[in-house]
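Design job #97: recover the sequence.
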């Protein structure tokens, strides 16, 4: 059966169920399409929540490499005078773009506060009709995949033009971007010091569009497809923080739990059992979370998992001016930055 026919049938089914938001039906020349679903309206923005525009520079750039080209935006803090700073690579979700993602996550304001660069690569419709990173394609789940090579190339471009601390490069993403962030952490562990996966999926969860939807619905057992990636539980992984809502009907919470299990298994394969510490009821009353941490012998959290009570498919604590945000919190961006920058 033609893959575009399958994708179109899925699109029509979701549309009839009222689960689509402004996403056109796929065409035969669109490439593979994985859509985002929204099951309920997002809460209103509280008065005064939006942060003032950061004072640094937000620059439009482009990467051109042997595996392809992508545009990206780079935030350079106002205090930058040539001193070495960390770099955070931010991977947007489907139907998003760098400006939208920067607005929704408020990551530029945190970059201004703490002193780090932020790069926002832009997926394009030629690669995916819904602007999704192609995490579900088997070739993209390896070090030599076109998108991992392009994204690593963007890090190299920024590092060549600015003073980037090589041991403090991080990657974070939402949904499809989170799934690609997990891939980058496993395929390029020497490049990324830590990974943040918000509402994402584990490595090897899918190999095409139908299996992607099965994985999003939580119908893929942990580890079922991982062997196809050429990576195993003993493969190195960076420190990892996971955010997922327990009421996420777009990407089921079992996917976040699988990311956590993969990361814990990788660390324990190399260093033995980690010590687990769990806190409940963390965050604002409207969106409490259970936070589990897996600590090494020095008490450093190598893996941290936030399961947000009542949370749907949205960036927690984000700005409602951006798409797919839940302003009720907890503040995922602030917690991710804390986890990244800890020495």
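Job complete. Output follows.
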């Amino acid at each position: 059966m033609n893959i575009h026919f399958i994708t179109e049938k899925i699109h029509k089914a979701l549309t009839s169920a009222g689960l689509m938001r402004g996403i056109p039906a796929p065409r035969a020349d669109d490439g593979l399409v994985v859509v985002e679903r929204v099951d309920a309206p997002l809460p209103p923005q509280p008065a005064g929540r939006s942060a003032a525009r950061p004072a640094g520079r937000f620059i439009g750039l482009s990467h051109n490499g042997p595996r392809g080209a992508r545009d990206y935006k780079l935030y350079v803090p106002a205090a930058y005078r040539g001193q070495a700073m960390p770099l955070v690579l931010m991977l947007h979700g489907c139907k998003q773009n760098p400006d939208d993602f920067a607005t929704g996550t408020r990551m530029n304001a945190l970059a201004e506060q703490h002193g780090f660069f932020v790069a926002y690569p832009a997926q394009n419709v030629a690669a995916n009709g819904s602007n999704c990173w192609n995490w579900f394609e088997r070739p993209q789940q390896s070090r030599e995949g076109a998108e991992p090579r392009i994204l690593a190339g963007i890090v190299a471009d920024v590092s060549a033009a600015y003073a980037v601390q090589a041991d403090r490069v991080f990657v974070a993403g939402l949904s499809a971007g989170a799934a690609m962030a997990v891939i980058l952490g496993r395929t390029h562990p020497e490049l990324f010091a830590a990974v943040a996966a918000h509402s994402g999926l584990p490595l090897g969860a899918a190999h095409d569009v139908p299996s992607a939807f099965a994985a999003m619905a939580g119908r893929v057992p942990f580890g079922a497809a991982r062997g196809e990636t050429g990576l195993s539980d003993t493969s190195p992984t960076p420190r990892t923080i996971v955010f997922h809502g327990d009421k996420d009907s777009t990407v089921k919470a079992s996917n976040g739990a699988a990311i956590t299990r993969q990361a814990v298994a990788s660390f324990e394969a190399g260093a033995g059992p980690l010590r687990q510490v769990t806190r409940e009821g963390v965050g604002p009353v409207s969106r409490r979370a259970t936070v589990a941490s897996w600590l090494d012998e020095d008490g450093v959290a190598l893996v941290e998992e936030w399961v947000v009570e009542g949370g749907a498919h949205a960036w927690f604590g984000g700005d409602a001016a951006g798409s797919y945000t839940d302003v009720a919190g907890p503040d995922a961006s602030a917690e991710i930055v804390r986890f990244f920058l800890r020495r």
